[in-house]
């Protein structure tokens, strides 16, 4: 039986928010809903903040250890508190729609 897995991956490589679907159309709908949600709610980096590219992108990929149909990545600002004060850095989050 084919199943489609939609998940997000944090900066440490752990996946979360995992959902499985039988139909590819349902998985893709969830994928694009997550993309739209991140564009609206994440403090995305601007072109001048990192390498002049877009702060988010969707790609069609195929990984060796699994068939990833779609992947999206977001570069956004994340703040953290340290002994020296608040530090800001650009983090990356990924979503993938994977065939299992």
TrEMBL record:
Recorded superkingdom: Bacteria
Keywords for this protein: Plasmid
Name of the protein in question: Uncharacterized protein
Organism: Aneurinibacillus thermoaerophilus
């Amino acid at each position: 039986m084919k199943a489609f897995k939609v998940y997000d991956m944090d900066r440490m490589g752990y996946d979360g928010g995992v959902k499985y679907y039988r139909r590819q159309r349902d998985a893709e709908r969830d994928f694009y809903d997550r993309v739209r949600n991140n564009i609206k709610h994440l403090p995305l980096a601007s072109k001048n903040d990192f390498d002049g590219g877009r702060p988010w992108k969707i790609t069609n990929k195929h990984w060796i250890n699994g068939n990833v149909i779609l992947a999206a990545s977001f570069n956004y600002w994340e703040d953290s508190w340290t002994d020296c004060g608040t530090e800001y850095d650009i983090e990356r989050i990924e979503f993938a729609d994977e065939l299992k």
